[in-house]
From TrEMBL:
The keyword Chloroplast does not apply. CDD domains: ABC_Iron-Siderophores_B12_Hemin (cd03214). It is found in: Cell membrane. Its main location: membrane. Signal peptide: none annotated. It holds the Pfam family ABC_tran. Residues 4-236 form the ABC transporter domain. GO terms for cellular component: plasma membrane. Coiled coil: none annotated. The lineage of its organism: Bacteria, Pseudomonadati, Pseudomonadota, Alphaproteobacteria, Rhodobacterales. One of its GO terms (molecular function) is ATP hydrolysis activity. This is ABC transporter ATP-binding protein. GO terms for biological process: iron ion transport. It is a peripheral membrane protein.
Length: 259
């Protein structure tokens, strides 16, 4: 198997089961997969479990390697994780934070680390921020720095939790286009997105989580249906194509409140 495989994964917080016996058919490299679903559906929880940042039952495999059994430095080289936001109060400058993320997977010569970190910042269009303190950045700038930290080690698997939430429209497009390029370079890319319009345009595959399991899984045109939106999100909606052929979602009204 080449790619990411999630088999019989269950996650609980105390007595509350968030994810139950979830199996996700193999996620290959070269595609952007979006995890969608209402609040508290378990999207971020599942993403953190894949990154081995939270306890879980079941197996999570990357290219036939059990991620839970890999040594920390090896897993750090294979998996890049972008959280919803960077921790606040850091005294590091941007360049130092990228170098620190690079060295988390092992020793890298100083000159090589500097060049590699700057190359990633330039790739994301934020090279001018290299010497800025992290705690003086805007929310959108911090998210782009977080993405730079996630990709600087050239990971095989890239996991992103709400990567567009603090970005303006132009930077959303820049980031999502970059995710498509990263996938095309041979990575497995999985992102949590609330914005279904963005998911419709940029995802190759959408997995909708609902009530602890998978409600729908497939390409956007298969998953984004009025029936799914009614059952999962509790809204009456139309799914149509715009003049360019892209899917659009038009919300008409709320149905019964979603629990």
């Amino acid at each position: 198997m080449s790619g990411l495989s999630i088999r019989d994964v269950s996650i609980r917080y105390g007595k509350r089961v968030v994810i139950r016996d979830l199996t996700l058919p193999d996620l290959p490299a070269g595609q952007v997969t979006v995890l969608a679903g209402p609040n508290a559906a378990g999207k971020s929880t599942l993403l953190r479990a894949v990154a081995q940042l939270g306890p879980h039952a079941g197996r999570i495999m990357l290219d036939d390697a059990d991620l839970a059994r890999l040594p920390g430095p090896q897993r750090a080289r294979l998996v890049g994780f972008m959280p919803q936001s960077l921790p606040s109060g850091s005294s590091l400058i941007v360049l130092e934070s990228i170098i620190a993320a690079l060295r988390a997977a092992g020793e890298t010569p100083a000159a090589q680390a500097d060049a590699q970190a700057m190359a990633v910042l330039d790739r994301l269009g934020i090279g001018a921020l290299a010497l800025n303190p992290l705690d003086q950045l805007s929310g959108g700038q911090r998210q782009l720095v977080s993405l730079a930290q996630a990709i600087v080690r050239n990971p095989r698997l890239l996991l992103l939790d709400e990567p567009t939430s603090a970005l303006d429209l132009a930077r959303q497009v820049r980031l999502l286009a970059e995710l498509r390029r990263l996938a095309a370079e041979g990575r497995v890319v999985v992102a949590v997105l609330h914005d279904l319009a963005l998911a419709a345009q940029w995802a190759d595959r959408i997995v909708v989580l609902h009530q602890g399991g998978i409600h729908s899984d497939g390409p956007p045109e298969k998953v984004l249906t009025p029936a799914m939106l009614a059952e999962v999100y509790g809204v009456e909606a139309r799914v149509e194509r715009c003049s360019r052929g892209n899917l659009t979602i038009l919300i008409d009204r709320e149905l019964a409140p979603v629990p």
